[in-house]
Structure formats: structure tokens, C-alpha cells
Amino acid sequence: MKLHRKDILGIKELSVDEINLILETADSFVEVSTREIKKVPTLRGKTIITLFYEPSTRTRTSFEIAAKRLSADTISISSSTSSVVKGETLIDTAKNLESMNPDLIVIRHSAAGAPHMIAGVLNEPVINAGDGAHEHPTQALLDMMTIRSIKGKLAGLKVAIVGDISHSRVARSNIYGLTKMGASVHLAGPATMIPYGIENMGVVVHTQIEEAIRDADVVMALRIQTEREKQCIFPSLREYARHFSLNRRNIGSAAKDVLIMHPGPVNRGIEISPDLAESANSVILQQVTNGVAVRMALLYLLAGGNA
Amino acid sequence: MKLHRKDILGIKELSVDEINLILETADSFVEVSTREIKKVPTLRGKTIITLFYEPSTRTRTSFEIAAKRLSADTISISSSTSSVVKGETLIDTAKNLESMNPDLIVIRHSAAGAPHMIAGVLNEPVINAGDGAHEHPTQALLDMMTIRSIKGKLAGLKVAIVGDISHSRVARSNIYGLTKMGASVHLAGPATMIPYGIENMGVVVHTQIEEAIRDADVVMALRIQTEREKQCIFPSLREYARHFSLNRRNIGSAAKDVLIMHPGPVNRGIEISPDLAESANSVILQQVTNGVAVRMALLYLLAGGNA
Amino acid sequence: MKLHRKDILGIKELSVDEINLILETADSFVEVSTREIKKVPTLRGKTIITLFYEPSTRTRTSFEIAAKRLSADTISISSSTSSVVKGETLIDTAKNLESMNPDLIVIRHSAAGAPHMIAGVLNEPVINAGDGAHEHPTQALLDMMTIRSIKGKLAGLKVAIVGDISHSRVARSNIYGLTKMGASVHLAGPATMIPYGIENMGVVVHTQIEEAIRDADVVMALRIQTEREKQCIFPSLREYARHFSLNRRNIGSAAKDVLIMHPGPVNRGIEISPDLAESANSVILQQVTNGVAVRMALLYLLAGGNA
To answer: Which of A61, A101, A208, C152 has the smallest set of CB atoms within 10 Å of its CB?
Structure first.
């Protein structure tokens, strides 16, 4: 089966069938990374460009490893070395890169919609690796893959997402994906971090973490941007942690086999207590492993379709 | 045919035969970048080092893609991560890199003559990717390749180069190359940006852009270093743009099929009006595409001669 | 023969047999870098991550070239682009990288013991590429390889190490290695740069450079961190150079065929006079060449053992 779509810009526009196709393809790539020789020739002779306007280790590394394991050549461009500083527009940068005949461009940008803008002018596939507070589709796909691989399904599960919903592209993409796949999504966070009207996305909003967590099959803690502390969105990290940190006490009301997730990097003791992050219920590192498989799947589906 | 030359440091020292050889070799590499599998084994097992002391996206990326499409291994060193900060001399850095047995070194440096200095002490081929306001030979080669591929020739053409001639290594390399190949080169720019005595290079100097452009087959706009505005070399960007920006009005006096070129990155509305940059006469993106082919040709001619 | 050890964290814990095995394996890899096609398939499909929390050209480049010549895929992460800035712990960063199934991690960190900490929690091999003022085992191995390849042995040689012993991980690793292999190690440097009690490591300490150098078979000058000048550890670079710079005069008392070594980057005129650095006795560049071979050997022994 093929993905009839040039780009992956967000989860919002994906159908259930498309999500299932991506997750199944990702499942089939997990095994490659466990081989003695972790390499398949699928994308040999293809050029993948990663264009990161925000710093990142995990996501960029995950895409690069995914591309190399498919035998693609990778070119990594980050904003500090890019000619953006020279006043070129984003579209001109993208068209210039296109003129070098890449096969796919991965972009992360602090401006919501930036990937959509370049996808609209480029013939090559574009993958959104995070745009502002908008979407982070590969994160949501790896999260759904992780849940599905353990729970065997997404439909009917109760998933709690806890933290700074307003500024989280991870939350937004997961809400689109999980509700679409039939899960019931519950949010909790400080009132200043819950966007007005978010209920329209089909989620239930709580002001107490305990209510969101109760009987949850999955609890996902979001990363707090600690630099936001100075912006008066919440009084202090200490106060945030007292009310919204996942810990042994509040997790007790969740299902016994609850999955504890976090997109990383973790601020230990703030979003989640260290012992919980390392508990048997935590699948935080499995998320990272599945991230490589999801990205291999997308590179394959978008850039290797003709092979 | 072979290139009997260890390095490519400038256009000044190249013969007409050498330029023709490079352009013909580049023509033959264009097709590789349009294949399904964009890779030939020509430089397999070779190590190409790019050593950039000035930031660059386009040129570094172009060299890296060129090297990878020839199957070479690439090592990218930029000044921010380099030990230059630690007080090592450039020659010591170069000799250290040489001791790791690379097959070719590409260098960009803010000091004119830096590539020549290291080429003089290294046994490996060195390619100048831009040295101060001196030369940028691969840019001139890709410009000549672009003109020739469309016009079928260089000899007899009228080429206008507009802008900050004084600080432009692109202008200097193109003047050497185009006059050598029999084109007639006309310059225009603010008086403070035209070097005294440049007529000795075989060019015609104009103070009005309209005179330089009249009946031109090619018009090349140079990038303005906007940071120069503060150095009192020209009064303001606005005043520069009023007198020397390429636009629909002044381009009217050029030949109907005039080629509009720019080395990038473009400051839209300053060196060139946005509509002109995207018009049918603009070959700006074709220049970028040909850049990969020219660099593949040079890497092949200098590092793959024995294959 | 195989190396029965997961990591290379320091020379302190290596046995004489292990050092001999590494040096012999390195000898056998020298030839690969002189081939027309500098590549063997040994580590094809393996992923090597270099994780550098301190800037470096030479060491990072050396590891990258070594990995590529063994056909491994390399991922390069440096602190400026890493999520360390985001407050993640080093162990969490390491475990996240591990979750992407790398085959080996090379780490440089300003904190002594950092590589040991992550080696303790990772299943994959870890190579210490320099940790604070503690150890720099690959430098000592390439130094021993260089001496042995020319002198035919290490046992019985007199080796003088001159400079800032206190802050030098190069000195520390070489002292462990050279004494273990039977060489006699003599130190000289300003009193403020000789650690109290260092004699317990089996070395002889001198306050005059001439005494350390007398009849030496090898003289190793250490790099001065010039930024230390401001920290009052020594009065001035000029005064340091007057008393501890290697030069034609003081080298005269060494053996006629003394080897002059320096780990680089060299501050010319401070640790060593320029003419001496380029004399026939200098093996500084040979050290760099052997560095690639030593790193190929370690990558092979630690990551390719099953092949």
C-alpha cells in the first residue's frame, strides 16, 4: 500500500487509514535497528536534507540515523550555520536547496506554518519536525506506535496529557491523532497553560491532575520550557511541580499497567519524579527507539515509493 | 583529457582549454543528479574535507552533495568548532588535516590568499571556495556553465555585472573568466564600490546601471553585504536600491532573452526586484543546480584522475 | 585475539597485553589510509556517535575519519547543538542515544569521570576522547604507537614530558601508559603546574627543563592553555616560554635521535620553537596520522569483534 500524500506536515490532515499505514510500516522497520548490520539499501543514492532552525539533539539525530539506516545520504543544516542570518527568505532558502535535487527535506522551525509554506512551493516531500507551538507529527506517531505496540490498540484507551498544553506541539499532534484513533483524551495543567476552547478538539479538560489520571491507560507528561518561568505564565517551577508533577502518589489512581510517557528531554523532579521516570511502567526510552522506526517509515513512504 | 593542475585557487590562472574541460566535465555530471539513484562510485573510499572559516549554507552544502554523489566520504569543519580559536596557525591546521590522509581539501576563508597559502604546503588538491574579496572560482565556473548551456557560447556575449564590485570575489572571478572566454564585460555600481583601475582587467565601467545593461545578453546582480551600510560605503540601502536595483524598468533596455543571474543569497528588493528574480529570464536557481555539477567535475578532475 | 573489555576509559586500567594488542591492531590499520580506496567494510551498518561537550577539530575529525574508513555511519553531536542546554542530565542524554541503537559512543567532556559515568549505564562500548584533566587514552595510545614504531620499543626509553602537568589529561594518560610499558618518565614544568605527590605515579620530577631532557629518547611538550595566564597559575606566557619552551639550545642535551612530540594544537614559540617543531626529529604530524589508525583499531576491537 502507498501513502497518497507528498508531505507530512501535521496529524490533523491524516486519515485513520494513513496513520495505520505509517504505524504498520514503522513496526516493520523496528527489526532493522536490531540487526548486526543495521542497514537496508532502500534509499541508496537519495539525498535527505535536515533543516533545523531550532536546536535539537534527539529529533535531528533520530532522522539522521533513520536516513542512514536506509542508506540515504544526509545533509544537516542548522540555523547557526545557515544563510538565514544573511537575510534570505525561508522560501528562497528552500528553493535553493531544491535546486540541488534533494529527495526529501525535514524542517524544524520556531514559526508555526513554516513547513507548510515551503511544502507549498517545493516538489519534494517535506516532513515537519516541529513548527512553533503548532504540530510535531513524528512525535505523535511514535507515541501512538509505542502505545499500540504495548496495548495492542488505541481505540477505547484513556490517555491523560499533563502540563503546558498551550505551548506544546506535542500535545496538539497527539490530541489530533489519539482522538482520531478512538482514544479518550484528558488534559490537565495550570489554567494559564490550557488554551481556551480546547474542548472543541474532542478532549476533556481537568484542573486537577488526579482527575485526569484516574483509571488512565496512558499518562503523558509534557516538557516544561523552564524559561517560561520568567514570563509569568506560572508562578514558579516549584509550585508547578507541587501540583502537576507525576509521582508515586498521584499515579496510584491510574490503571495498574498505566504507560508513563514523556517526549523528552525530561526535567527530572519537575514534570515527573525520577523514580517514576525509571519505573517499569515508564516507556520513555521505548518512545525514542520507536522514533527511529517511525522516521524510517516516513522516509520510505515519502521518498522511496518508486523503489 | 586530464586537468594538469593540483589545485583550483582562482580563475585568473586557468587557461581557456582548462575552463572548457571543466565546463564539459560538469555538463556530463548534470544527469547524475536527476537519476533515481543519484550516485556514481567514482570517488568511493576518498575523503573530502570542507574547511569553512566563514559561514555558508549553499556553497558548503553544494560541495557536500557533490562529494556524496561521487560516493566520497565527507568531513565538514567550520570555524566555530575548529581549533583555530585555540591559536593554531592555518598552516598547522592544514598540515594536521593532511596527516589524516584526505584526498582533497575545500577551503573558504575571509583572508584573501589563504587557500593559496595552504595549497603551497599540501600535497593534496585544494579548492578555493571563496577567499576574502579575492576569488570564488567555483561560482564563476557555475555562472559560465549556466550562460553557456543556454546561450550555447560565451564568446561575443555582453555581460553586465552590477553592484559592489570592490568587495566581490564573485565579480572578480567572473571578470577573469568571462573576458578570457571572449565575452564583453560591463560593470556598474556606486563609485565607492568600483575599484580604481579595474579597467585594466579588460572591462568597461559605467556609473549608470542603464548604460551597462543596454543590449546585454546577461545581467548579473551582486549581493550587497547589508552590514556595509554602516561602514559609510554607501549612504543607505534605500538609495542603493533606487539607483542600482535590477527591475522591470531598467531591464527593458537589455536583450529580450537576457539572462538574469545572482550568486545568492538574494536580498529581495535591494539588488533585484522580486518579480524579476522569479521571471522567465531569471536563471538564479539553475545556477544553484549547476553548482553541484561544477563541483562534482572539479572533485572528479582533481581527486579522481587515477580512477 | 580479542579485547576483553567493553570500554576504553583510561590507560590506568589497561594491562600491558591489552596495550600491545591495541598497538599491534593499530599498526595493521595504518596501511588502509594509504590505499587508493581508503575503506574496508569492517563496520558496515554500524552506527558510531561522537558526543563532544568540548570543542575539538583534530580528535573529532580523527574519530570520524576512522569510523568512515571502516564503513561505519557516524553521527556527530556537539554541545552547542545538544539538548544539554535544555537541562537534561548526561545520563538521560546517553540513555536516549542508546535507545537509537548505536554500536559505540565516543565522548569528550570537561568533567573528569563523565565517560565512566555513562559507560556504567550503557550496554554499548564507550570511548573516552578526553575527560577534564583526567585521561585522554587515545592520545596516549597514539603517542606510544608513534614512539614504538620508530624506536622499536617502549621499555627502557627515557621520555621527558614538559609543561602544565597538572591540567593535562595527555600527561596523565601517557604517564600511566609509558611507565606500564617500562619507559622511564621524567617531568618538568613550573612548580605551580606539577601536582603534589605525582612521584607516586612512578615518575621523576625536575624543576629545570634541562635536567628532564638530558639524554632523553623522547621529549613531549604539552600544550599550554593560554587562557590560564589570567588565572595566575603562571606569571606570563613570555616567562613560561623563557624557561620551558623546547628550543635548539636545550634540546642539545637530549639523545641525538630524540623524538620531539606535541599533542597539538601547537602554540608556536611558547611550548616549542617553530624550527624545532619542523625539524627532522619532530614526529608531531606522524602522531596525527597514527591517531587515525589507533582509533580505527579501537572502533574495530570494541564494535566489530563479532565480525
So the answer is: C152
Over range A228-238, report the average pLDDT.
70
Q: Is the Cβ–Cβ distance between B71 and B39 less than 8 Å?
A: yes
Q: Would you give the DSSP letter of residue C6?
A: S
CB contact under 8 A, A83 and B265: yes
Active-site residue flag, A86: yes
Q: Please give the ipTM for the structure prediction.
A: 0.94
**How many Cα atoms are found within 13 Å in the side-chain-facing hemisphere of A169?**
23
Kindly tell me the sign of the dihedral angle through the C-alpha atoms of C85, C88, C94, C98.
Answer: negative
Residues of C in CB contact (< 8 Å) with B are 33-39, 55-58, 60-62, 64-65, 68-69, 78, 80, 226, 264-268, 285-286, 288-289, 291-292
Question: From B99, which residue of chain C is nearest by alpha-carbon distance?
Answer: C289
pLDDT at C89 over 70: yes
- Amino acid C95 reads K
Tell me how close the Cα of A107 comes to any Cα of chain B, in angstroms: 15
Neighbouring subunits of C (3+ Cβ pairs under 8 A): A, B
Residue B102 · residue B49 · CB < 8 Å: yes
- Find, among C253, C181, C251, C182, the residue nearest to C220 by Cα: C251
Strand ranges (DSSP E) for chain C? 47-52, 73-78, 104-109, 126-131, 158-162, 184-188, 204-206, 218-221, 259-261
Phi and psi at residue A156, to the nearest 5°: 90, -10
Q: Neighbouring chains of B at 3+ CB pairs within 8 Å?
A: A, C
Q: What are phi and psi of B209, to 5 degrees?
A: -60, -35
Find the helix or strand (DSSP H, E) in which A187 lies: strand A184-188
The 10s digit of each residue's pLDDT in C114-139 is: 999 999 999 999 999 999 999 999 99
C222, C263 contact by CB (below 8 A): yes
**Vertex B142: Cα angle to B139 and B147 (nearest 5):** 125
Radius of gyration of chain A (CA): 19
Tell me the shortest Cα–Cα distance from A82 to chain B, in angstroms. Answer: 5
Residue A234 has pLDDT above 70, yes or no: no
pLDDT class of C238 with cuts at 50, 70, 90: confident
pLDDT for res C16 = 98
Q: How far apart are CA A255 and CA A261, in angstroms?
A: 14
Q: Mean pLDDT score of chain C, rounded to an integer?
A: 93
Catalytic annotation, pick one of A57, A81, A86, A256: A86
Say if CB A168 and CB A225 are below 8 A apart.
no
Q: Is the dihedral of CA A17, A18, A19, A24 positive or negative?
A: positive
Catalogue the E-assigned strands of B110-223: 126-131, 158-162, 184-188, 204-206, 218-221
Does B59 qualify as catalytic in the annotation?
Answer: yes
The verdict on whether omega for the bond into residue A265 sits within 30 degrees of 0, i.e. cis, is yes
Active site residue B108: yes
Grid cell listed for A203 = 478532549
Query: Measured between CB atoms, which of C37, C267, C288 is closest to B44?
Result: C37
CA C126 – CA C130 distance, rounded (Å): 12
Task: Report CA A171 to chain centroid distance, whole Å.
Answer: 9
How far off is chain B from A116, nearest CA to CA, in Å? 20
Output the pTM of the full model: 0.96
- Give the three cell numbers for residue C214: 638530558
Tell me the average pLDDT across C67-90: 80
* Annotation says B242 is catalytic: no
Query: Annotated catalytic, A38?
Result: no
Q: Which of B35, B68, B268 sits opposite A73 (nearest CB)?
A: B68
Cβ-based burial of B264 (10 A; exposed 0-12, middle 13-18, buried ≥19): buried
Query: Cβ separation of C65 and B45 shorter than 8 Å?
Result: no
**A46 vs B contacts (CB less than 8 Å):** 37-38
The neighbouring-strand residues paired with C219 are C160, C260
What does the alpha-carbon distance between residue B237 and residue B225 come to, in Å, rounded to a whole number?
10
Place of cell 524510517: A296
